[in-house]
């Protein structure tokens, strides 16, 4: 493995603290926790878990594409829910993004930034060309 590269795209929310949207290290991409933030307005979007899950996963998708990967190359996901009762509704939206061979996943309940309902981080690979 040779070094690390910071991944930045304006198609996903820019960091609000001292962290990167993602880091590319070798053939791996480590995507920082993303939430339901509109990249243009930097505002929380959606009131329902379904809306917030879709925005969150679209932000991850944009970061992965900037890094040269895609949702199909995600190998591990951690989903943080402010209310574990949202699991089934979140899962319905999540399944649209990972139709075949879904990644390994952990889902936990946690207190989240600014009372968002969901945060997701991901690890993906960059496929050989």
Features:
single chain; 129 residues; alpha+beta; six-stranded mixed beta sheet; 6 strands; 29% strand
Q: Kindly, what is the distance between the CA atoms of the first and last residues, rounded to a whole number of angstroms?
A: 17 Å
CATH class: Alpha Beta
Largest sheet features = 6 strands, mixed
Would you identify the regions where 5 or more consecutive residues have pLDDT less than 50? Answer: none
Tell me the CATH topology.
60s Ribosomal Protein L30, Chain: A
Topology:
Blueprint: E1 4-7, E2 22-25, E3 28-34, H1 49-66, E4 74-81, H2 87-97, E5 104-109, E6 118-125
Parallel strand pairs: 4-5
Antiparallel strand pairs: 1-2, 2-3, 3-6, 4-6
Helix pairs in contact: 1-2
Description:
The structure is a single chain. Helix 1 runs parallel beside helix 2. This protein is globular. It has 129 residues and is an alpha+beta fold. It contains two helices and six strands, in the order βββαβαββ. Helix content is 22%, strand content 29%. It has a single domain (4-125), classed as 60s Ribosomal Protein L30, Chain: A (2-Layer Sandwich), CATH 3.30.1330.40. The mean pLDDT is 96. It has a six-stranded mixed sheet, with helices on one face. Strand 2 (22-25) and strand 3 (28-34) form a beta hairpin.
């Amino acid at each position: 493995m040779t070094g690390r590269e910071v991944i930045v795209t304006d198609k996903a929310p820019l960091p609000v603290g001292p962290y990167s949207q993602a880091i590319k290290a070798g053939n791996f991409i480590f995507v920082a926790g993303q939430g339901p933030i509109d990249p243009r307005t930097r505002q929380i979007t959606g009131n329902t878990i379904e809306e917030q899950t879709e925005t969150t996963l679209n932000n991850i998708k944009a970061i992965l594409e900037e890094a040269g990967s895609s949702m199909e190359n995600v190998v591990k996901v951690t989903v943080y829910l402010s209310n574990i009762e949202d699991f089934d509704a979140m899962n319905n939206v999540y399944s649209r993004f990972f139709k075949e061979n879904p990644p390994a996943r952990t889902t936990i309940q946690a207190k989240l930034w600014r009372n968002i309902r969901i945060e997701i981080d991901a690890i993906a690979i960059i496929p050989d060309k």
